[in-house]
Amino acid sequence: MKPIEDKTTGIIDLFFCLVFMPVLILLGRAHYWVKDWPLFFALACLFLYGCYFTLKYIDIPRLLIERDYRRIGIAVGGLTLANYLLTCYPLPAMDFVTPSMSAYQTQVRNYSVSLSLWLMYSLVMGYALTMSFVRELYKQLLQKRQIEAQRDKAKLAVFKAQISPHFLFNTLNTLYSLVIGTSQKAEDAFIKFTEIMKYTYVTIDNEYVPLKDEIAYIQNYVDLQKIRLNGHTKVMWECDVDDDTTMIPPMLMLTFVENAFKYGASTSRDCTVILRLGLRHGRLEFETQNYVMKHADEFRDEVPVGIENCRARLSGIYQDGYTLVTSEEHGIFRVNLKINLI
Question: Average pLDDT for residues 244-272, to the nearest whole number?
Answer without folding.
Answer: 85
